[in-house]
């Protein structure tokens, strides 16, 4: 399977400063439109201590839903949507050349059929892992897959010890994103 989708134009909206006591510093907010699904999407690049960004996205129509990161639209176009989300990486690297990135695969929720994915290695995680390992090379980033928490990290090779850095970031994320603790 090849992953040669063109993606869509990613538009910067704003920088939102985080005011809680976590190590989440700010969020860069972008949006894009899929002509296939006819939906607008919102991408959050959440910056944390150590220049690591958690990349998250959701369909704009679901912005008030508790399940916005988990809902299935059922309209396809996953390839273009994922490539568009990955297009945030070079944009962020242009202003923060030592940035690292993380993706967590939320458990899918289909409210129509009332089904929720259970367990680890979520389908979203499997897709993120495949796409990141296929599309993003090894020159700039060392890749780390965490099957137990359905998370994938791209640690910038400018970090002296990528393994230690990845573990430090996972600990920080488990303190910030409490649902990671439930799976660990």
SSE blueprint and pairings:
Layout lengths: L10 E7 L6 E11 L4 E10 L3 E8 L18 H9 L1 H8 L4 E5 L4 E2 L4 E2 L6 H13 L5 E6 L4 E6 L5 H15 L2 H5 L1
Parallel strand pairs: 4-5
Antiparallel strand pairs: 1-2, 2-3, 3-4, 5-9, 6-7, 8-9
Multimeric status of the protein: single chain
Distance between the amino and carboxyl termini? 31 Å
The biggest sheet, with number of strands, parallel, antiparallel or mixed sense and barrel status, is: 7 strands, mixed
What gross morphology would you assign?
globular
Give the overall average pLDDT.
85
By helix and strand content, what is the structural category?
A: alpha+beta
Count all strands and give the number: 9
Order of helices and strands: EEEEHHEEEHEEHH
How are the strands of the biggest sheet laid out side by side? Answer: 1-2-3-4-5-9-8
Model regions low in confidence, pLDDT < 50 over at least 5 residues: 180-184
> How many helices in DSSP terms?
5
Instruction: Please give the share of residues in helix.
Output: 25-40%
Portion in beta strands: 25-35%
**Using only CA atoms, what is the Rg?**
16 Å
Please tell me about this protein's structure.
- This protein has 184 residues and is of the alpha+beta class.
- Helix content is 27%, strand content 31%.
- A hairpin with a 4-residue loop joins strand 2 (24-34) and strand 3.
